[in-house]
Amino acid sequence: MKVILLERVERLGGLGETVTVKDGFARNFLLPRHKALRATEANLKVFEGQRADIETRNNKAKEAAEESATALNGSSYILIRQAGETGQLYGSVSGRDVSDAVQAEGGKVDRSQVVLDKPIKTLGLHEVKVRLHPEVTVTVTINIARSQDEADRQSRGENVIASQYEEDRAAAEEAASDMLEGGAGSHDVDFGADR
Prior knowledge:
CATH class of the largest domain: Alpha Beta
Strand content: 15-25%
CATH topology of the largest domain: Ribosomal Protein L9, domain 2
Low-confidence stretches: none
Number of helices: 5
CATH architecture of the largest domain: Roll
Shape: elongated
Radius of gyration: 29 Å
Largest sheet: 4 strands, mixed
Mean pLDDT: 84
Number of strands: 9
Structural class: alpha+beta
């Protein structure tokens, strides 16, 4: 199906371009979201008549997104989640969780603007892209931890999982050396003396 793009669409083209897309993509995504019009004679005439208004509207939306982008770009948000000893989350962090964290701090991000290729399933610092406008994308850092203390340590650059393994290994070595030095079975008893 041929459509006329009403805004820039990633991997397709810019405003005003006529492109050929699969019918389902046009019917289910582009047309219902008012990102495109069917490329018919009547729609071409309507688009050319309204092109200046559409471009003006698009530029205003882009400027508003750029203003929001200055506040959001590079910001960091903390999410407290339950996780196992290896750092695997018991659930996952989705686009909705990211948008809720940003909104809790006063930002305006819809979950559809959060770009996640796959859900986040591990502890640590994760960079997430937020597309505020088809031409404006910012990056925010999501700090996923089991506690506020752990989040603070991660934000300072510490690998919490590796340091936990190191602490556990040191504790195990100390326990083993205690057993060898004077722990279990170290009593000086002569079992043959009573005979």
